[in-house]
Amino acid sequence: MQLKTDYLIVGAGIIGLTIARELCDKYPNKSILVIDKEDWIARHASGRNSGVLHAGLYYATDSLRAKFCVAGSKMLRDYSLKNKIPLNQCGKVVVAANDSETIQIQELYQRAIANGVNCSLVDEKELSEIEPTAKTSGYAIYSPDTASFHALAICSELQRELAHASVKFMFKTEYIENINGNCIKTSQGEIEYMTLINCAGMYADKIATDFGLIEDYVLIPFKGIFLYCNDLIGNYRRHIYPVPDAKIKLLGVHFSPEYDGKIKVGPTAVPCLARENYSWLENWRFNEMREVLGTEFKLLWSNKFNFRDLAFAELKKQTKKGLIKYSTNLVKNIKQFEFTDWGTPGIQPRLYNLKKQEIMDDFLIERGLNSIHIINSVSPAYTASFAFAKHVAENYL
Ligand SMILES: Cc1cc2nc3c(=O)[nH]c(=O)nc-3n(C[C@H](O)[C@H](O)[C@H](O)COP(=O)(O)OP(=O)(O)OC[C@H]3O[C@@H](n4cnc5c(N)ncnc54)[C@H](O)[C@@H]3O)c2cc1C
């Protein structure tokens, strides 16, 4: 028998869960079904991230990322506190490795102020009082509102809340294809819907394409690894970030205290072979690998958006020694023996516009006939999720 639902959400990551929550509030009498190809929620980006509650310093002032990061960080903070989910309100500093980065720090500070972010520009002496382990060239930015959230606990609480409100979940249920705009084929049979909401993260572009939307885009996966510190004396107290790379638009390797105070350094950003290729032999799909490698070879050749330089620089950070060597730009007196264990890797997608030959920066929402597609849910999509979901429910559903 064919399953029927009013709202069908594909993807049980933070975006799918927060949109389901908004729908529940808005349409309590409608049926909502969330499907995911994995065996449980948050198996991909939402369970494999840095866990940093961003304040919204970086993003272009008129972008969706800036708007929803600033609003979403407050909502995520409130949700964590209300539900007694651990939150480490540790703050963050952004430091400059050299004189040219000092200029970028000042530009970044202006942008943060334009975004309405609470932060200050501090000199080297002030920095040494705020975060004694950090070092900078000239100036740094101090953001007291940056924090660390517990990504898995937040998703689990949302799932519990939704199940209690009669939202149905089907796991190990993979979206396979669009049948006729009101019905999809999944690995567990066909599902008929009134509205489909595509929140498939790393595969959202593929599903949107199946609905005849977005052309000329290709997704490039970058793998991030983390190295944990056994900092028993608690030297590192705040997030320590570099000036972000303006071309690739990733925030760069940083020091981060987690929600429980554990310190990690990462994530790196090495171009990888497939969208979910977390370890050497994991999740190989031949056609996907061919597509990803094809794009990466072209970019290695053309060095568009510094791809070749980035790939080689990031490869050097794949060993403990390489990662620690890079980190000397951020902190004083780092001791390699303190950094012992690798953490769970995550993969960040970058959506590349083949026609314009540029990286797509912002979140993208595409509307089909009976469907909505959330594409490019890149960082800080976790931080932004509650505010972003509200926007989607109010304006698209
Ligand atoms: C290394 C790393 C560090 C990050 N750090 C931060 C940070 O510090 N702060 C921050 O705010 N953000 C951070 N992010 C970004 C953030 O984690 C993501 O933007 C966010 O989790 C995206 O959520 P999502 O629900 O869109 O995607 P996902 O969590 O990937 O969820 C998508 C879901 O769709 C499912 N799915 C995919 N295809 C199908 C299909 N065909 N059928 C059925 N189900 C399917 C997947 O199984 C998955 O569960 C980071 C990301 C990474 C990778």
Please give a structural write-up.
This protein is of the alpha+beta class. The chain folds into three domains: 191 residues, FAD/NAD(P)-binding domain (3-Layer(bba) Sandwich); 53 residues, no CATH class; 137 residues, D-Amino Acid Oxidase, Chain A, domain 2 (2-Layer Sandwich). 32% of the residues lie in helices and 25% in strands. Strands 1, 2, 9, 10, 11, 12, 22 and 23 form an eight-stranded mixed sheet that branches. The chain is globular and about 65 Å long. It binds flavin-adenine dinucleotide. The site of flavin-adenine dinucleotide has 41 residues, from α1, β20 and α10. One of its GO terms (cellular component) is cytoplasm.
What tags apply to this protein structure?
D-Amino Acid Oxidase, Chain A, domain 2; 3 domains; FAD/NAD-bd_sf; globular; eight-stranded mixed β-sheet; alpha+beta; 23 strands; FAD-dep_OxRdtase; oxidoreductase; 397 residues; FAD/NAD(P)-binding domain; binds flavin-adenine dinucleotide; (S)-2-hydroxyglutarate dehydrogenase activity; four-stranded mixed β-sheet
Write the layout of secondary structure elements.
Layout (H helix, E strand, L loop, with lengths): L2 E8 L3 H13 L5 E4 L16 E2 L10 H19 L4 E2 L3 E4 L3 H16 L5 E4 H7 L8 E5 L3 E3 L1 H14 L3 E3 L4 E4 L4 E4 L2 E10 L5 H7 L6 E8 L2 E3 L9 E3 L12 E4 L5 E4 L3 E2 L14 H17 L4 H9 L4 H8 L11 E4 L3 E8 L4 E3 L3 E4 L3 E5 L5 H16 L1
Parallel strand pairs: 1-2, 1-12, 2-9, 5-15, 12-23
Antiparallel strand pairs: 3-8, 4-8, 5-7, 6-7, 10-11, 11-12, 13-18, 13-20, 14-17, 14-19, 16-17, 20-21, 22-23
Bound molecules: flavin-adenine dinucleotide (FAD).
Family: Belongs to the L2HGDH family.
Keywords: FAD, Flavoprotein, Oxidoreductase
Cofactor: FAD
